[in-house]
């Protein structure tokens, strides 16, 4: 058995973990356009990329994309089609105009800030507020998200209406949708409503922080053999003890101070198939920092 001093010395001599540049958010955040070729989701929702992505048009029937300057309105064509269909159904139901938030980057991969997932072109955030008319693109850059959860009572606020509930139901009823993440209190509100068909409730998964938007996630599409499907949810509507445990531990998301700059995100299990996606024809990359060689030595750090 090594003495404590010997163990410490051995630890100090250990070489830092080598992380290839294509596994860091710096590289993926510098890409400004999708790769050419057939669309393909590669890897897992929090460790992968998207080839042949498409951009969701900034405006459409029943929806408008917000914060376009973030350049996160890309996804697999199946996601783009789903959101356009969703907007039409929202408009047909007379609910208002849906606000589409972050989808993914031009080639997916880890983002410099925000989401741990949204990496393979199959995730999209949709804000729950429905009180805004169609707006110019500049006006959509700085909007405030309305929070629909009273954390003291762990119930939805008075701002919550049938329109929010109906919009979530429309999204969940789409067969392309695998699950939708919402605050536990919002899931509870949906469970307490009377629905003719409650099967869609199974897709609503309680998750902390989703108190002003829903996070839509699609199933792996055909033609994407490297896409990693998530384990199916348990049967039932999910309005059970599991939800109660989420409610007991729910708390508001931590607000980052103005000017906060996160460290580059590292994905240690980034599929090797994502390297050619990053470097494929059509790439327009900004100059990467000289301090980011390949491979990149970074300290070991637990991933989310």
From TrEMBL:
Gene Ontology MF annotations: metal ion binding; metallopeptidase activity; serine-type endopeptidase activity
Keywords attached to this entry: Disulfide bond, Hydrolase, Metal-binding, Metalloprotease, Periplasm, Protease, Signal, Zinc
Region (Disordered): 285-304
S-S pairs: 49-274, 191-239, 220-227
Alphabetical list of Pfam families matching this protein: Peptidase_M74
Gene3D superfamilies with a match to the protein in the record: 3.30.1380.10
An example Gene Ontology CC term for this record: outer membrane-bounded periplasmic space
Keyword match Disulfide bond: yes
GO annotation, biological process: proteolysis
Stated name of the protein: Peptidase
Organism of derivation: Azospirillum thiophilum
């Amino acid at each position: 058995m090594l003495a404590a001093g010997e163990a410490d010395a051995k630890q100090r001599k250990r070489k830092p973990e080598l992380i290839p540049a294509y596994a860091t958010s710096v590289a993926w955040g510098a890409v400004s356009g999708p790769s050419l070729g057939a669309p393909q989701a590669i890897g897992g929702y929090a460790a992968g990329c998207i080839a042949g992505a498409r951009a969701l048009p900034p405006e459409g029937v029943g929806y408008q994309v917000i914060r376009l300057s973030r350049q996160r309105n890309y996804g697999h064509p199946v996601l783009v089609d789903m959101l356009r269909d969703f907007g039409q159904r929202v408009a047909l139901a007379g609910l208002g105009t849906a606000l589409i938030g972050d989808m993914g980057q031009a080639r997916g991969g880890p983002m410099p800030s925000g989401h741990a997932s949204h990496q393979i072109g199959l995730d999209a955030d949709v804000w729950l507020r429905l009180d805004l008319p169609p707006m110019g693109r500049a006006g959509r850059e700085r909007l405030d998200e309305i929070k629909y959860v009273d954390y003291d009572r762990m119930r939805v606020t008075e701002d919550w209406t049938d329109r929010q509930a109906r919009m979530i139901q429309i999204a969940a009823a789409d067969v392309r949708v695998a699950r939708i993440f919402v605050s536990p209190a919002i899931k509870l509100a949906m469970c307490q409503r009377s629905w003719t068909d409650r099967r869609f409730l199974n897709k609503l998964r309680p998750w902390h922080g989703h108190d002003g938007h829903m996070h839509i996630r699609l199933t792996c599409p055909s033609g994407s053999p490297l896409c990693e499907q998530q384990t199916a949810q348990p049967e039932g509507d999910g309005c059970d003890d599991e939800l109660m445990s989420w409610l007991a531990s729910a708390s508001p998301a931590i607000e980052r101070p103005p000017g906060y700059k996160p460290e580059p995100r590292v994905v240690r299990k980034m599929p090797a198939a994502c390297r050619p996606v990053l470097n494929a024809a059509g790439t327009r990359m900004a100059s990467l920092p000289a301090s980011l060689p390949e491979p990149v030595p970074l300290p070991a750090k637990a991933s989310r």
